[in-house]
Amino acid sequence: MKRHRRTDGYRWSAASFGFASPEERQQADLFLADLIGRPQSGSAFAEDVAEDRAVADIRSRAIDGARARRTFLDEASITRAIDDRTSRPELRQLFDAGVAAAVPYRRRADARGTDMTAQLTFYWSAVDTGAARILALLERDRFRCAGTNAVAVHGDVVDAMRAGWTQSGEALAVGALCRGAAPATCPAPHASLHNPTGSTGSDAAHFVDLDRDRIRTVEIAGLFGVDLRGVTSAARPGTAVKNISTAAPFRQVSVVGIRKSGRREIHVARETTRRVESWVDDQSWLCLPFVPGLSYRLFKRRFWEASFHRQWGTSSSISWIAGLTNFYRDNAGLPMGIGDISHIVGEEITDHASHRVGKDVDCYVLEAPPAGSQFPVGFWCSGTRANLELRELVPPDAAAARPEYGVPAGAPIADPRRTTLLDRYATILAYCVATQTVLQAAVWHGGPGLTTRAVAIALDAWDRTAAANAGTTQRPGWRATWGPGPANRAAITNPPASLFIGDGSAAYGAGKPWPLHQDHIHVRFR
Questions:
Q1: Within a 10 A sphere around the Cβ of 352, how many other Cβ atoms?
Q2: Could you please report the per-residue DSSP string of 458-502?
Q3: What is the dihedral of CA 128, 131, 132, 133, to 10 degrees?
Q4: Cis peptide before 476 (omega within 30 of 0)
């Protein structure tokens, strides 16, 4: 194309070059389109300006991707790559294709015809598409195998990791990018995906060099779909997850958190049956909200802190909890509350000295939120084991930045509601009775006072299930959905005194091994 000498008299389409961003130029275009509608004759100079304008806008739009956090790439690396594109044919061709797609719309818009506004819309759409394709190419560069300088990891995995990386807002590192032997940190059941049969590439890669906070941040952004770009880095790993997004970046790939030999990583993979797991020093863990078919309420008294990303545990612990939620629903007639278990690979967790190894869970008796409220009704237990008292927790202030239930005062709940509620607590304890061989303790203020009632509920559940032929072949009085259970009816017996810890227990109370537990039942597994 012939180049023309610049003058101050070129068409108005170049007037907005002085704006700071392509967004501002776009707004100027649309504003002027509303003001100026008279056509002008075309010229070769105008065509030259249209091409220059498209080049500048695609470049700016791509760089603005970093400023607007639409990419995990930094502004400097994008600028450097685009300005050096002549040395990289693939990028140069992609850039030129974007310009070629945008220029015709720019020229028609500059002609100021009756369709000027429509042509500007098409132009900016072409600019955005060109910039997005450039960013995608530059992002995929981070996934090149060092040995071959090619992207060996399947595109579905790369795209999921790109999206999760961007939403995390963090500067991350990726590894295991070449086809071949899995890294030493990769759990054995997942290692083959790095060297799949019948493929020339790899179906897995890892986020690597993660610390305790960043592994949680990547989990929250990628697995649960929370956009953390507007959250401070320090607050990201504590961001509460109340819902699981159907648009989460990792929604169609397997996700495996790893902590081994002091290293933390996240394995992301493509496979037929999706898996959501973590492995802590070669022990398999699961996440409760990803167990299908469960019905429970996410809950804790510090309601602002209740989060699905705090519900990881060993595989046996999660199997037990899943069985409990089904047992409670079938026998109490409504969902129970589940609070904290552990983080994705354990370690420290706020509000607890325990809950670090995937073998603790907090269980709640709840009632549905009152009309117009989002907060379920929770309860506080006091009194003595011979005369237990229950009161409703004071509901949080919905306008509070950190909604939290308050400790109640006033008169306790009277019968018959009191008895109904105690039976619900006893239903949780009944499941503990039936599965006592896998438990270390169930700690709740009223636990020791409900032992007899708990045994009776467990026996009744067995008898009703057997009578209805609803049990399994091995356990006729135990439904399959109730998870691990007693070998037979005779195994449902009074537990040892050390199982239910509460009022009257030597180990329970202020300054004792087990502090007061008045709003939930804390179950610990062996």
A1: 14
A2: HHHHHHHHHHTT-S-SS-TTS-GGG-S--SSGGG--PPPTTTEE-
A3: 130
A4: no
Per-residue pLDDT reduced to its tens digit, 67-99: 999 999 999 999 999 999 999 999 999 999 999
Question: Is-contact 283 257, C-beta < 8 A?
Answer: no
Q: State the average pLDDT for the chain.
A: 93
Comparing CA positions, the residue from 437, 454, 428, 431 lying closest to residue 525 is 437
The torsion angles phi and psi of 307, rounded to 5 degrees, stand at -155, 140
CA–CA distance from 381 to each of 24, 29, 164 (Å)?
Answer: 60, 66, 43
Which amino acid, one-letter code, is at 21? S
**Predicted TM-score (pTM) of this structure:** 0.91
d(CA 63, CA 175): 26
Residue 127 and residue 451: Cα distance in Å, rounded? Answer: 70
- Secondary structure (3-state) at 98: helix
Q: How many CA atoms lie less than 13 Å away from 435 in the CB half-sphere?
A: 28
CA distance 390 to 424: 12
Dihedral sign (CA 243, 246, 250, 256) = positive
Higher pLDDT, 27 or 74: 74
- What are 435's two structure tokens? 């599965």
Task: Give the number of other Cβ atoms within 10 Å of residue 19's Cβ.
Answer: 15
Q: Say if CB 203 and CB 190 are below 8 A apart.
A: no
What lies within 8 Å, CB to CB, of 517 at 6+ separation is 443, 444, 445, 502
Q: For the range 52-55, what are the long-range contacts, defined as Cβ-Cβ under 8 Å and sequence gap of 24 or more?
A: 52/14, 53/13, 53/14, 53/17, 53/106, 54/98, 54/99, 54/102, 54/103, 54/106, 54/123, 54/127, 55/99
- CA–CA distance, 116 with 124 (Å, rounded to integer): 12
Cα–Cα distance, 283 to 277 (Å, whole number): 10
The DSSP symbol for 221 reads: I
The three-point CA angle 406-408-414 to 5° equals 145
Of the candidates 364, 385, 389, 391, the one whose C-alpha atom is nearest the C-alpha of residue 503 is 385
At 40 the pLDDT is 45
**Tell me, what's the pLDDT at 25?**
67
CB 82 within 8 A of CB 141: no
Q: Indicate the pairing of strand 283-287 with strand 276-280.
A: antiparallel
At 513, the amino acid letter reads P
- CA separation, residue 219 to residues 62, 232, 442 (Å): 27, 16, 30
Q: In this structure, how many other beta carbons lie within 10 angstroms of the beta carbon of residue 101? A: 18
Map tokens 């009744």 to a residue.
460
Q: Note whether 314 and 359 are within 8 A (CB).
A: yes
